[in-house]
């Protein structure tokens, strides 16, 4: 099976900006997993608020938790890829034709964006205590 | 949509002082229909990142039973999935602190969507190209000369560069280098290797002509060669043979000459003498070899590194053909084969057979430490298998 990773320059896509530069996204790394309340799924739901302090420290508030993080530059950047199945999309069939041999098994990945920076939250979330009992 | 008031209320509950924070706030929400399978992450190195930025294509190659590799124009990488217990979220329009507007007048909300998430990514590691298959494919249908070619008809398998790149796990540059090393030639758009006897026939024509014309090996004129030999073989094959065994240059009068490579000519002659032998008495071989090379060229055993192996411990001493390109590309399998052929190796003897296994910044010494055990034998350091035998 041959799979090709190409980027959007030769095969235009909305993700390459007008000036020809590949879009750059940000990565956020959280420890553990995020689950939605009542298990309704994550899609379409609010995750939380991201603030930065005056010093630039990221603060994430998710539900009743505060997380303090750090912005860091990735030594090894990431490419964000989207799989394109050539058989389904007619717009891609042009590509398939370019490859002689077993063109049926060709899969393309489009480089949607590059990621060079991430916000990482390494420490344990702190709970927000809303109901502080009054002095007895 | 979340409002400024809601964000403020949350800050209050969290007991955070808004004055300590930058006025711009990102409200992060998951995109409609988001799922973990939408995007893959691939970790890059600086070279590959630049490739992508400059619009080059990267290609993943491998048959179903092969481990996938990723190639750019001139390098090959092993591709492996790395899992992480962390959640990786992709944020297309989220800013880092230095990118935020600096005027702190009013608070503003940035609604940014989480486009996808993952807890694994593809890891890349620079690897040696896997080129053995290239020879295997081209051996299926070797070129034996124009008349044999006509007899064969056109239904024999031939490979274009694109065909080769589709099935060989190496980059275009690495494939081209190997084709050159194998003396392959592009005939009607398809890469072919010459059948060994045919290649020797061409070389003999050239060396005999050099001899009869009393030319210097360092100044063989292309034009005269083609003129003299075109009755025997196609002109392009004569020129190809000169390119394989000599260095092309142009003199002041713009005439093309070749400087024949003594080592290459001697090596080819030795391979011809050894091709059907299992073992050859060393002194007899050396005598015959020297007689077989063109007058004025001198044979030396070090010309046969990686092509033949001398056994100095047998009586009489013998030489046997052993080509490095016939051995496995897998490091452990290569060592197993070598230790089957001979239980104890000196570093000098084994080096030509493991040199090509060295990765980036890896030395022969490091390979031997990992895959062999050393001991002293009559004051000489020798290497044997790490496995009990």
Your description of this structure?
- By secondary structure, chain A is mostly beta strands.
- Chain A has a domain at about 25-35 and about 45-85 and about 105-125: Immunoglobulin-like (Sandwich), CATH 2.60.40.
- Chain A has 1 helix and 8 strands.
- In chain A, strands 1, 2, 6 and 7 form a 4-stranded mixed beta sheet that branches. In chain A, strands 3-4-5-8 form a 4-stranded antiparallel beta sheet, with no helix packed on it.
- Chain B is about 35% helix and about 25% strand.
- By secondary structure, chain B is of the alpha+beta class.
- Chain B folds into 4 domains: about 5-125, no CATH class; about 130-195, no CATH class; about 195-260, Arc Repressor Mutant, subunit A, CATH 1.10.10; about 260-325, Nucleotidyltransferase, domain 5 (2-Layer Sandwich), CATH 3.30.420.
- Classes of the chains: A mainly beta (about 140), B alpha+beta (about 400).
- Chains A and B meet through strand 1, strand 2, strand 3, strand 4 and strand 6 of A and helix 1, strand 1, strand 2, helix 2 and strand 3 of B.
- Strand 3 of chain A pairs antiparallel with strand 1 (about 25-30) of chain B, so a sheet runs across the interface.
**Main sheet properties of chain B:** 4 strands, antiparallel
Mean pLDDT across residues of chain A = 72
CATH architecture of the domain at 23-34 and 46-87 and 103-127 in chain A: Sandwich
N-end to C-end Cα span of chain B: 73 Å
Under the CATH scheme, which class of the domain at 23-34 and 46-87 and 103-127 in chain A?
Mainly Beta
Number of helices of chain A: 1
SSE topology:
The complex is a heterodimer of chains A (136) and B (389).
Chain A: E1 3-7, E2 24-30, E3 46-52, E4 58-62, E5 65-68, E6 70-85, H1 93-98, E7 107-121, E8 126-127
Parallel strand pairs in A: 1-7, 2-7
Antiparallel strand pairs in A: 3-4, 4-5, 5-8, 6-7
Chain B: H1 4-13, E1 24-30, E2 40-43, H2 46-53, E3 58-61, E4 69-71, E5 76-91, E6 108-114, E7 116-127, H3 132-139, H4 146-152, H5 161-167, H6 172-181, E8 185-187, E9 190-192, H7 196-213, E10 220-221, H8 222-229, H9 235-245, E11 246-250, E12 256-260, H10 262-274, E13 280-281, H11 282-292, E14 308-311, E15 318-321, H12 331-341, E16 345-346, H13 347-354, H14 364-371, E17 372-377, E18 380-385
Parallel strand pairs in B: 1-6
Antiparallel strand pairs in B: 3-4, 4-5, 5-7, 8-9, 10-12, 11-12, 13-15, 14-15, 16-18, 17-18
Helix pairs in contact in B: 7-9, 7-10, 8-9, 10-11
